[in-house]
Amino acid sequence: MPSNFVAKGADGYEATMGRWSKRLAAPFLDFSRVPSRGSVLDAGCGTGSLTLALAAHPDLTAIEAMDFEEDFVAALRKRTTDPRINAQKGDVCALPYGDGEFDGVYSLLVLHFVSDPYQAVREMRRVLRPGGTAAATVWAYGGLPSWRLFWDAILALEPKVADKDPRTKRPMTGEGELRATFESAGFADVADSVLTIHMDYANFDDYWYPMVYGQGTFGSFFDGLPQARRDQLRDAVRAAYLGDDSDGPRGFATVALAVRGTA
């Protein structure tokens, strides 16, 4: 089943989301209880932020990484020479592994983009050994204030692009949804938590260009506008970013939801 994530290559992903995936990986793994040894799976690895964080655990013997986007898988392969890591293309809703293969299965910022998150969680449980732990995290609905600033400014001038607004409510992003899904899939000892990171930008350009030309379809729409309209939109977002201050660093507290359970 295809993903509903609009991918525009590994570089676009890194600029828009990969750097924040890397920042979220550490608190997520602290919550997830990575096994002291054995084999683990990064289900929906993207360009490898979580995979490489898992590789920092020296006693893990095998680290499988899988993603629906071949460009992301190729980018991960270029980022590591760790012999424990095997990256391949695959579908989180139909994991290409046998029953009970892993001691841990992890999903970072994936379940709100897959075609059937309930099936994906069932698959995560299927490939776990008895007693193994699975964990997942997604951005909380309304938990991305940097995106809210951008889209509120854009939509005030261009309401017709509302269909391109990525803040639409997605499955698993509401309070309690992840926990209920893990419980319905048969996990035991289910626990959930809220994780917070900071999205820090060096200046307005560091904020603006990834938001316009990273993932999603807004960039092609923006490029099709007359130059005067593009300048107007950019000025509106810039004013929202700067507020009453000069250009420079800005930080946005950003919230993700997490859950773990035992097979």
From TrEMBL:
One of its GO terms (biological process) is methylation. SUPFAM superfamilies: S-adenosyl-L-methionine-dependent methyltransferases. InterPro entries: Methyltransf_11, SAM-dependent_MTases_sf. The keyword Methyltransferase applies. Keywords: Methyltransferase, Transferase. PANTHER family: 2-METHOXY-6-POLYPRENYL-1,4-BENZOQUINOL METHYLASE, MITOCHONDRIAL, METHYLTRANSFERASE. This is Class I SAM-dependent methyltransferase.
